[in-house]
Amino acid sequence: MNTNFGQAWKMVVASSDIKKQLKTLSELLQGDLDFHQMQSSYASHNFHSFPAKFPPQLPHVFIQNLTDVGEIVLDPMNGSGTTVLEARLAKRIGIGLDIDPLALKISQVKTCSLKPLAVYETGLRLLKAARMMLDTSPEIIENYLQSRWDDETRQFVDYWFLKSVQRELASLRIQIEKIDDLALRRFFDVVFSGIIITKSGGVSMALDLAHTRPHRVKQVLDKNSQILFSEIEESQPPRSHWVKKYRSPFEEFEKKLKVNIRGLQEITSLPVYHILSDAQKIPLKDNIVDLIVTSPPYASNAIDYMRAHKFSLVWLGYSISSLSSKRSEYIGAESQPRTSAEVLPAYTQSVIVDISSLDKRKGMALERYYSEMKRVLTEIYRVLKPGKCAIVVVATSILRGRNTQTHLCLADIGKQLGFIVPEIGVRNLDRDKRMMPATLQNNSESQIQQRMHEEYVIGFYKPA
């Protein structure tokens, strides 16, 4: 009798706790998730441009309300490390997974602990040595450039970078690669990458790198508006998006160094772990994570991270062929799936069938995306502790005029796996910050603008 009463009482208490946790999660998801007019460049959040970042306030609000100091916060699709940096600032243990080598490097640097003065002095010495090498030992730089890449990568570099820019970048790379301290070398790698992949400008002949749609300019002008490079015929009136001002890598490196130094903090709180890993195979034990906050890629490669990241990764030692191979592994890629399709819920399958009826290739890409996301959510369920939450921030895509209904499909898949989904929050986007569009004018026919106005914050709760 007493044993039965004790078991019944435990069930009542457990049920009460679940209701309380679900109520808290629902209230957070119903709150203001826009965070417009809020400063997002504090700490090291602005170390490097990255497309479609969510504001740091978003993971912050869930970390503060759903975890305690010392607990584990995971982002299995880490990107530039917004979640794990917020976890560290809040004295939680952060774990970030990603298969993009540049994303992981950026996140490592944003969460490291370095002494700002020592880093700045090293940076100035590095710059001085690079400038001196360019003046006194140009043959070393030329040898470096000639031996650096295979033919395909060499052609890519020659197409996108002026020779004078290549020489300055090479002299910087030679100095950076001499640094023995791994954390310090990573820091300067990110500074270096940050002068190539920028929201505006950058030292390559590309525009629109920050939102992954690069196109090469037809003309480059120096500071005095003298032509350094031109493919514009005399009969063609130059257009603004054809022309770019020359930027010296040395000068841009010094500017970016100063910006990043201001964001450095000597963080002494709990550690952050970074793992080069696929979110479909999370290398963690069962039931150990206290909170997950993540944002998966768009379906059908709508934002092609590698298209931009390769501009700096080729300088960091990667070949074009290796990066193309890596790109095909990304969730949301349009290439053929590496594994068979998963059994998906009826609603999700109906969305796939609808798009497949209009475009079989797009339908196959969407089926791959939802199959891969089912494997990700399965892993999230496995590593999450019972009674804990996962927050997944998504936006829909428009394929052949049809909405992929990503938020509803992922919620559907989550329920199939055993999650409770009490609420789906809505974020109204500040599109200039989130998507970094190429134009400020509204265009109802533009697919990228059709999905720029809002995104969805799905709350998954793993029952206790």
UniProtKB/TrEMBL annotation:
Catalytic activity reported: a 2'-deoxycytidine in DNA + S-adenosyl-L-methionine = an N(4)-methyl-2'-deoxycytidine in DNA + S-adenosyl-L-homocysteine + H(+)
Keyword set includes DNA-binding: yes
Keywords: DNA-binding, Methyltransferase, Restriction system, S-adenosyl-L-methionine, Transferase
Source organism (scientific name): Bellilinea caldifistulae
Name the UniProt record assigns to this protein: site-specific DNA-methyltransferase (cytosine-N(4)-specific)
Domain of life the protein comes from: Bacteria
Boundaries of every DNA methylase N-4/N-6 domain copy: 40-107
Key word Transcription present: no
EC number: 2.1.1.113
